[in-house]
Amino acid sequence: MTKIISLGGSIIVPNEIDVGFLKKFKDMINDFVSSGEKVVIVTGGGSTARKYQKALAEVIGQDQEAMDWVGISATHINAFLLKSIFNDVAETEIIEDPTQEIKFNKKVLLAAGWKPGWSTDMDAVLLAENLKADTVINVSNIDFVYDKDPNKFDDAKKIEKTSWDGLLEIIGTEWKPGLNAPFDPIAAKKAKELGIKAFIVGKNIENLSNVLKDKEFIGTKIE
What we know:
This protein is of the alpha/beta class. The chain has 8 helices and 10 strands.
């Protein structure tokens, strides 16, 4: 079964490009696919996108579509970086439209943002539908979904398992460019409709490997 990873841009580029993480991520994915598995990696825009969106808003005001396009562009440079890292095991084409007919003969496929109105989490869900995968693994700078923002509330409680409806109660139902949430609400609605489950995990490589291999892991399961 093909695995879909939605790799947060803030994991790739927290401030500077995290070369240490990328080296470990490369080794882990290469080891996983060596047994015949396939992985789709959808790269987010993260802090890079938010910096450009902030600058754009300061110059022209809140133009949501323009801000989305700036964010989408950031996902593409991250996708090209990852495609180059995986080199000969990755397909040459970076997927922009997750609903297109996809050639996937190699072990790794890279995808980036498509169009305004949602984040790359939605692209990951649409790729799961297209490739008949049943799971999206969301790798971000948090290890769990919390009942409220743990950066603002000391009493925020981690959630190890929830439903899509439960998640939407926490994050809301609307998308806006640069939204910092564990999963895009538009993607959450679509995943619920398709019966796709998701795992929310942090950047720990061993833990991510455990999720890929269906072993015990630290994080949140949503279904």
